[in-house]
Specification:
alpha/beta, D-Maltodextrin-Binding Protein, domain 2, 2 domains, 10-stranded mixed beta sheet, 10 helices, 10 strands
């Protein structure tokens, strides 16, 4: 595949999204929630969706007055858990956490079993973060330029991990191959946790890993961070250059995590959830903690999140079609 000069900006918004539209300062007292709220994380523990959900858990359940029960339901790139929530009773007691792969479900799974634009409704995008190009400690490269040279010298000798076909780390790696003229084999996993373990263990050599997940392994010397995919460096990775700074153009990508609810969930419940999450995203202590991990707080409105999701679906569909990227 020839190099492409196309910038894939998987950016679902920025930190000010939640303030762009007027929102009610408060909502009428709701007879909700009346029992624990089940939050489905459609991936195994240890990935970015699970990590963000657990960081939000204590604050959000305090705001709602009921426990938040996290239910990890992995399978088929997260679509198994998403299908379960799409079929759930729309009473606000079953919610879904997703990340960037949600926008590509219709492209990856022709027999998905539900309509991403009809059967689930957006609540809010919670955070965004760049991806970090990491390699295991045994790879003899200290920066992106030397790694690209290594890939070109040994085409087909290296593997990269993803959390599944159509995810941002899969599509970003395919874009990386295209813009650098290299070849590296795709090894999909059921979630971030298993992928990270094999990456550290040397079963795969490379991954575009979410900033928050890469951080502890980079600090411990178990992984080497070669570049970050954002337009600018995030404070948590101040010493790691962007891919553009490293001489690779056309690869500006950010990942994100957001919340959805079953279609038919009463709008006051959706609004209450979004407002409470936005409040948390505005807490200085919480925001500072996110920044330390390479995450940016968002808290967008349902409308903003819905528009962004639709834009992402169209953009990735166009990219996959025009560039012939494989989702196998």
């Amino acid at each position: 595949m020839r190099p492409i000069q196309w910038i894939a900006t998987l950016v679902m918004g920025c930190g000010v999204l939640g303030t762009l539209h007027a929102q009610p300062a408060s909502l009428p007292n709701l007879a909700w929630p009346t029992k624990p709220v089940r939050v489905v994380v459609p991936f195994p523990p240890g990935g970015i969706v699970d990590t963000v959900t657990r960081q939000l858990q204590t604050r959000l359940q305090a705001a709602l007055g009921q426990p938040l029960v996290i239910d990890n339901r992995s399978g088929a790139g997260g679509s198994v858990g998403a299908l379960e929530v799409a079929r759930a009773t729309p009473d606000g007691h079953t919610l879904l956490m997703v990340f960037d792969s949600y926008a590509t479900y219709p492209l990856v799974y022709p027999k998905l079993g539900f309509d991403v634009n009809r059967d689930l409704v957006p609540v809010t995008q919670i955070v965004s973060n760049p991806l970090i190009l990491v390699v295991n400690s045994k790879v003899p490269a200290q920066d992106l330029r030397s790694f690209v040279s290594l890939l070109k010298a040994k085409p087909g000798s290296f593997n990269y991990a993803s959390v599944g076909s159509g995810s941002s780390n899969h599509l970003t790696a395919e874009l990386f191959k295209s813009v650098t003229g290299t070849f590296i084999t795709h090894i999909p996993y059921r979630g971030g946790g298993p992928a990270q373990q094999d990456l550290i263990g040397g079963q795969v050599e490379m991954m575009f890993l979410s900033a928050v997940l890469a951080q502890p392994y980079v600090k411990a010397g178990k992984l080497k961070a070669l570049a970050q995919t954002g337009a600018q460096r995030v404070p948590a990775y101040a010493n790691v250059p962007t891919v553009a700074e490293s001489g690779v153009k056309g690869l500006e990508v950010n990942s994100w995590v957001g919340m959805l609810a079953p279609a038919g969930t009463p709008r006051p419940i959706v609004d209450r959830l979004q407002i409470e999450i936005r409040k948390i995203m505005n807490e200085p202590e919480f925001v500072a903690r996110l920044k330390e991990q390479g995450l940016t707080a968002i808290g967008s409105t349902p409308e903003q999140f819905g528009v962004a999701l639709k834009t992402e679906q169209e953009k990735w569909a166009r990219l996959i079609r025009d560039r012939g990227l494989s989702l196998e």
